[in-house]
Hints:
The complex is a heterodimer. Chain A is an alpha+beta fold.
Amino acid sequence: MKAPFSEYLNSLMPGLKKLVELLGQEFSYVSVLSTDSKGLTVGISRHSKSVGNKTMTTERGTVVRVYRDGLYSEYALDRFDPQNPEAAAKEISETLNAQLEVLKANSCRIYETGPLPDEPLELFVEKETGVLPEEADLPGLIALLSEISEKGLALSENVLDCITRAQSTHICKLFLTKNRCLRQSYVYSEGSVALVVGRDGQNKVGYKSVSALGGPEIFPGLADKLEPAAKNAELMLDSERIVPGEYDIIATPGIAGLIAHEAFGHGVEMDMFVKGRALGADYIGKRVGSDLVTMHEGALCAENVTSYAFDDEGTLAGDVVEIDRGILKAGICDALAALRLGTVPTGNGKRENFEHKVYTRMTNTVFDTGTDSLEDMIASVKYGYLLEGVESGMEDPKHWGIQCIIQMGHEIKDGRLTGKVVSPVIMTGYVPDLLGNITMAGTFSEVEGSGGCGKGHKEWVKVSDGGPYLKTKARLG
Amino acid sequence: MDRYIDILKASGADAWEVFSTEVKNWEFYYIGHRLDQNRAKNVEHVRLCVYKLSEDGFMGMASAEIPPTETDANIRRTVDDLVYQAGLVKNKPYRLNVPKPFEPVKAREFDLREESDRFIKAMDSIHETATEYLNSYELFVSAVKRRLVNSEGVDVTENYLSSMIDLVVNARKDDHEIELYRLYHLGGCDREQLRLDIEELMRFGRDRLIAKPTPAIGSYPVVFSTDAALSIYSYFLANLEVSMVLRRMSSFELGKPVTVNTDGDKVTLKALRELPNSPSNFSCDPEGAPIRDAVLIDSGVPQQYVGGRMFSQYLGLDDTFIVSNWSVSGGSTPAEGLRSGKFLEIVEFSDFQVDGLTGDIFGEIRLGYFHDGEGNVTPVSGGSISGNMKDNLAHMRMSRETRRYASAEIPKVTRLENITVSGVDAC
């Protein structure tokens, strides 16, 4: 079925068009983004079970962007009355003018930017989904998650809790300017199983997830995640600490995705180029990885949690080849950064929600596959680790450092997995070294989207990332 | 608010809560000192929670966020759905908070225009040089009104100011430029404290420019003297959480020391209603329980658990609350006394973390000062540290002096003895 576009947003449209017209009398560019995204969340654990409608991306509200005399300003509101757009226009104008008075009193200088183009465009997209979160079989979903949780709790006396979670969101967005009217509707879902185990005062968590562009029909797949989550949790309980040093590593697809995201995902967000905060600006056309490294970024390059039709500035979704056989080719860009850099936007202007500013943000960030089998990759390692399980990562576009917190490493000795596990593992290094040392890439690729991404320590958005098994060298601690 | 309450009262729910948060906010984004964008918002978030008792003795909960533009008819439909959904969920019953006497926190008067003006002036007045300067910053000033009403008679309103600065500082020498990042959470503008914090950051920037690769020194004492240390003390707070205690994920027991055979300083951790310029000075927690000053850990011995009412009641506790502000008392030694012998003082991390559940410690080093014990001090960068809190509890040392960050006040300097330093260069 197609995910139906919001009737509520359709009902706002005439009023919002009038608002654009009214503000157009005072400002030379006006755009409106209105959102109406509904969700479903079910969480089950040993002592607590809950149902709700809020997810990371549920929202309903409107943000207005205006431009005058080289300056862009925005106003976010959630009580827009389509019968009285004049009231909203007055509120917006008065507040933004009051801000300008304060800025003027402080002799504030403007970072002057040109007007955004506004070529005519109409788009209406309703993407396919199996089920809508609004129409999910809630008793069935609660029963499914409860059954998985209870099975997990019964697995061993070390299990302290088995937390299952399912979230599904029906995104609807409307973007309007004087000449543009874009509407989109799609559903994405994500679920997880987290098995918390403890022994002798030591706790570990085994975690597995599912995510997809689609509805709650993906959640039965969670049942298959319990066993690997439990296995990893028990392995980590028996794990040792790693001896710090540089090792040959094989990154599982999840870790490959984390590397893609932290290395040249954040590293080529071009709003950072505007501020002189990214080394990538000086490396376009230069080698940053081995010949085996080709990396794509864009809402069109995978089907997952952030595969939209247009971004939050009304730019159509894209597929950017950031690195082609080791050569850095291009960055990703929101519309205002593109204006300032004299380039074109790539469909990566995203907001945490309508209340937040647009930044250049990732969507799907993916390494291309290679030709090597996992068996050959393991066989090629004299001494190293197969790294599995994403905890977190941190970008450093200015200096090309990377920090990845990884759940566990499986020891490889003389081309064989020994069964010994180290946990946890912190991987750090210099990004071009990490990518430059990639000597093998697998044939199987996987994209995951169960996490969120911040810019610095805020502005959380959905992203997905992935790739094949990759062999490289890294510093582990 | 009244329309939500009327609908909930008529819904057949056995208990209910309404949380409302109204936010008026001004934002200013700068590249250098030039204005990139100005923004404002005026929004309200309303969340309804519905509780339903079942015939077999369980209690279910379902919640929904309601857009302020929603019609009464749709809210009624949503509440009916919540009553049905709550009936599908089976939790052990517990009671919502009941009204208890409390002294309201005295909020200072504030005005978005005036507060924004103070922040703009404060940032304009930061002393920069040709080699240390502000790359970019974002100012957020929010006036917030938070209200909770529940079916047991709780009705609490809090008005407060919450501000944030996202800041990037650059330092440059010839063609080599580095950056340092901070995200400050504040009540209102404290110009003098901002000046001190940013001057310190610029000093770190100068040192990062000349930093050498961190040596691979293995197990080494590490000193923390910036906001990363908050994560160390958050580990203690996390292990007092009723949700951790009930699920046997915490080993902290009331009346029993968190570690034995200690030769380090013993932690004294307090919950506080108010902390100067904190954005979290509240009379009651988000579930309506009054917040009070309380000693949670006294000289290394847990005295009281904290957290929400559900898990508290499951543990048979009725005087808990969710902590907003907290403090850790200073230790026995002056800060300079902890900077002795061999140690690595780390002042900048990519993202320092102490996992409250596992105790694992991680962080990539962006700037540290390597003291070799023979009087030589070298700024270093790169590599990482790792360890576990459980291996450090017995020997942890805290400075006598304390320092305030947002909603917490902690020892100015903290020293952990059992940390592994994974360096870049062989020692």
